[in-house]
Write a structure and sequence with these properties.
Layout (H helix, E strand, L loop, with lengths): L11 E10 L3 E10 L2 E7 L2 E8 L4 H11 L9 E6 L4 H6 L6 E8 L20 H8 L10 E2 H14 L2 H5 L3 E7 L4 E7 L2 H15 L6 E5 L5 H10 L3 E4 L5 H9 L3 E7 L2 E6 L4 E2 L1
Parallel strand pairs: 3-6, 7-14, 10-11, 11-12
Antiparallel strand pairs: 1-2, 3-4, 5-6, 8-9, 8-10, 12-13
């Protein structure tokens, strides 16, 4: 597939602000805040979603979104992925916050499945087992084991490699690691789900096998994120934040190791602890 997008150099935008301090009064300053792009994905000519995102790694975001939400099975299903003739840099420079970018992915029609896209995930009155059956989730089959010392390094390594969050904040991050804790890729975005889609899109494009990988995220782990990780068959996900009860319950059913509050020399294992060597 032809690569049609370059990397975006900055995710933030300067803005004039008035800063007020009780101790020293008012001051006019220049601040940097995250830039938000409305990004429309079209599949076979039909707009399927408009995503609020940071303007970087848009091809990875698109591929991850389409696969994680069940529109396609794999990256190889895509025949053409083209970013429309609108320059992202110019959009940012002219402060056009309402601008949209459209991406069209042309897929082999015989391979398109009825989408089980999770625009909104809810267990409603059903059980976790009902949810697994309805979404066709498969149990994760991986013999991966990881030393607890490796898990303890993931938060520090992710924070050290964050570029834009250090500059102006307001961003989530997700990082891809191998079993030895070596960083393979990192994504920053205003949306935690976008970070996951960008990482999984990167894996799909690079054809990286999932069974020996770890994803670290700075966002809360809910059932929607667990769904995406299960579709990718990644055996371990770690966050420095919280884990919801439904996410932990689903993870136990699908053999996914979920770790929360991984920071400050500690972490909690919520499901499948056998993969973590104490």
């Amino acid at each position: 597939m032809e690569k049609l997008e370059g990397r975006i150099s900055k995710l933030g935008k300067k803005i004039k602000i008035e800063k007020i301090k009780a101790s020293s009064g008012n001051a006019d300053l220049i601040d940097i805040i995250p830039f938000e792009l409305l990004f429309t994905i079209s599949l076979n000519g039909n707009a399927i979603s408009t995503i609020s995102c940071s303007p970087a790694s848009l091809i990875e975001l698109t591929v991850g979104y389409l696969v994680n939400n069940g529109y396609i099975k794999n990256y190889s299903d895509i025949e053409l992925l083209k970013i429309c003739r609108q320059d992202i840099g110019k959009i940012i420079s002219r402060n056009d916050l309402s601008s949209r970018i459209e991406v069209t992915a042309t897929i082999d029609k015989d391979k398109i499945r009825h989408s089980d896209s999770l625009r909104f995930i809810s267990l409603e009155c059903g059980s976790i087992d009902d949810f697994i059956f309805e979404k066709g989730l498969k149990k994760i089959k991986s013999n991966l084991t990881v030393a607890s010392d490796v898990v303890l390094t993931l938060n520090r390594e992710t924070l050290n490699q964050q570029r834009y969050k250090k500059e102006f904040g307001g961003l989530h991050s997700a990082a891809l690691f191998n079993k030895d804790g070596n960083l393979l890729n990192l994504a920053e975005d205003i949306g935690r789900h976008n970070c996951i889609d960008k990482i999984t899109g990167y894996m799909l494009i690079k054809r990286l096998p999932p069974e020996d990988k770890i994803i670290f995220t700075t966002g809360r782990l809910g059932i929607d994120v667990i769904y995406k990780i299960c579709r990718m068959q990644i055996p371990i996900i770690v966050t420095n934040s919280s884990v919801t009860f439904s996410a932990a319950a689903l993870a136990k059913k699908i053999n996914l190791t979920v770790i929360g509050y991984a920071r400050g020399g500690r972490f909690n294992i919520y499901s499948w602890p056998r993969r973590i060597l104490k």
